[in-house]
Structure formats: structure tokens, C-alpha cells
Design goal:
Layout (H helix, E strand, L loop, with lengths): L3 E5 L11 H7 L5 E5 L18 H4 L7 H20 L1
Length: 86
Amino acid sequence: MPVQLWRADADTILPPTLYADAVRAALPASPEYHAVPGAGHFDFPAPCADAPLAPAICTSAGEFDHAAFDARFNRKVVRLLKDKLD
């Protein structure tokens, strides 16, 4: 089964060394792995349409470009599905 594993390097809620890295190590085969510098816990869902309503989950830290990441993330997920499930 194809697995694409993404790690938010700046995740303070689920630290990557305790979660993403543990999943990676436990998988029977090496996944396609992506570590995302500057990404926090809430940077993987699509960018919020109205950030002021939920600033804690809609605001990325530092210089992280959530919209650019989202576009890259979507392309890579679609590519994996097309390559492996076609």
C-alpha cells in the first residue's frame, strides 16, 4: 500500500520526533516522506477562509507560506494517487 507521510517540523502539539517519526519507523516499508520546515500543527488543513474567526488554528507561525505549501501538498498527494492507484 502506498504511504505518503508528512511531518510538520515546527509542530508543538504533536512533536514530530514523538509522532511522525514513530509512525515512519513502525511502517513495514519506507514511505514517501516529507519533512516541512516551519510547518506547525494546523498548517496541513487548507488555509482558513476567515482567519479572524479562529486565529489559533488559522494563523501560521513565522514566515511559513501556508497557501504555497497547500498547493505543493495537493500536487504531491494527487501525483502519488495517480502513480500508485492508476
